[in-house]
Amino acid sequence: MNDNADQLIIEQNISLIRQRIMAACRKAGRDSADVQLLLATKTVPAERIQLALAVGETLTGENKVQELKEKAGVLDSLPVERHFIGHLQTNKIKEVLKYVNCIQSIDRMELAEKLDARLQFEQKTLDIFVQVNTSFEESKFGAHPDQALSLIEQLGTLKTLRIRGLMTIGLFDADPEKVRPSFRLLREIRDAAISGGLLSSAQNGLSMGMSGDLETAIEEGSTIVRVGTAVFGKRQYPDSYYWNENK
Ligand SMILES: *Cc1c(COP(=O)(O)O)cnc(C)c1O
């Protein structure tokens, strides 16, 4: 496919996603300005990401530090906010910090403490989301819902980390109604954290919803939907490649 055709397809796909976001907000009685679109760009070459940025998008998410590194040459000079949305190993902390504005996958104190130490050394702060495993599936990362509040409380003691809210992947199912309880649980945990004083009312972000279930996520309060396939097309690797341990 040539670049012009690809540009057109990406532009149309983004326009469709924007319409879906607006329709879902209207239905839920929410302001669409309160829902951000994050482009999930795993496996997508930098040149194609650039096409999406040319349409006016400004927020991307990567799952692997290696991919951030490979695409940095092209993307570093562009106005883009990059988030890390994949499983983060502690030995990649130094590297990931070269590229991202935010890490959405903070799910354990060991990781957070090492991140905090590195940030102190660099005299920087970083936006984060606390990832919760709302589907109770073994193969997915994220803090167990029962431990989420205590993790949030402990994270509050690390001064370099600015919690923006919570993130979840949710149950992996093509039926959005089956995923809804995951989204609802994340919202309930956030609400409990705010009413318990562990988070301020400004730390109310909910990063949830993907190509197949963003409407449901918006109904349940999502403030960031993370969309890959519906913008860039099907990926070559199954998502388990990105979501499972030791990959
Ligand atoms: C791949 C991915 C997405 C996007 O999924 P799509 O179904 O392609 O929209 C969202 N969040 C995370 C963490 C992902 O790895």
Number of strands: 8
Rg, nearest Å: 17 Å
Order of neighbouring strands in the sheet with most strands: 7-6-5-4-3-2-1-8
CATH superfamily: Alanine racemase
Number of domains: 1
Bound molecules: pyridoxal-5'-phosphate
Per DSSP, the total helix count is 10
CATH class: Alpha Beta
Q: How much β-strand is present in the residues?
A: 15-25%
How many strands, what sense, and barrel or not for the largest sheet?
Answer: 8 strands, parallel
Gross morphology: globular
Q: Considering DSSP H and I runs of 4 or more, what fraction of the residues is helical?
A: 40-55%
Mean pLDDT: 95
Poorly predicted runs of 5 or more residues: none
Gross CATH architecture: Alpha-Beta Barrel
How many angstroms does the end-to-end distance come to?
30 Å
What name is given to the CATH topology? TIM Barrel
Pattern of helices and strands: HEHEHEHEHEHEHEHEHH
The secondary-structure class comes to: alpha/beta
Write structural notes for this entry.
The protein is of the alpha/beta class and 247 residues long. 44% of the residues lie in helices and 15% in strands. Strands 7-6-5-4-3-2-1-8 form an 8-stranded parallel beta sheet. It is globular and about 50 Å long. The model has no long low-confidence stretch (mean pLDDT 95). It binds pyridoxal-5'-phosphate (PLP). The site of pyridoxal-5'-phosphate (PLP) has 15 residues, from strand 8 and helix 9.
In short:
The chain is built from ten helices and eight strands.
Q: Which key terms come to mind for this protein?
A:
alpha/beta, 10 helices, globular, binds pyridoxal-5'-phosphate
